[in-house]
Design brief:
two-stranded antiparallel sheet, globular, 57% helix, 165 residues
Length: 165
């Protein structure tokens, strides 16, 4: 009876219950899984794949965070005034903040690239050499992407440790 109930739950939820309950993705698995997506976005938008992967891993807890699992949001991008898509509310810097919810991880990666390449406050980054990941990391912090004072050094540390450059 227990097996039948579990099978019904899995079928009704599209397997999400099992993926959320068992096993966590490691950082290496995260990079292996999303490497091609990040490289594709780099060619499309100019945002370095190393920065995209490091941000995705850091912001999503290697794909294991609540936002990543329930909203496919791997970059912690909030709704802001110009967002017309689906939303999820989650406690972050403040209680019950609005975050973007995506149909797929690929949509999250695409929106992240568009966000960085189209928002005025990040415009100076696109002028940097895509291989200058340290400049990109420092620029993201300077432009206010994250509130953590050591955000740039965390990105650089991830890129260096996993040879993402």
């Amino acid at each position: 009876m227990r097996i039948i109930w579990l099978l019904v739950v899995v079928l009704c939820t599209g397997g999400q219950v099992l993926s959320q309950s068992y096993g966590r993705m490691s950082r290496s698995e995260y990079f292996e899984t999303f490497r091609e997506m990040a490289v594709h976005e780099m060619h499309r938008s100019g945002v370095p794949a190393s920065i995209t992967l490091a941000q995705g891993a850091l912001e999503s807890g290697d794909g294991n965070s609540t936002l990543a699992r329930s909203a496919n949001n791997h970059f912690g991008i909030k709704c802001h005034n110009d967002w017309n898509g689906r939303k999820i509310y989650y406690d972050d810097d403040a209680k019950n903040e609005c975050f973007r919810k995506y149909p797929s991880v690929e949509d999250s990666y695409r929106d992240h690239s568009d966000y960085l390449s189209e928002k005025q406050r990040y415009a100076f980054l696109i002028e940097l050499d895509p291989l200058d990941y340290k400049g990109w990391a420092r620029g993201l912090k300077k432009a206010g992407y994250a509130t953590n004072p050591s955000y740039a050094s965390k990105l650089i540390e991830i890129i260096d440790e996993y040879d993402l450059h």
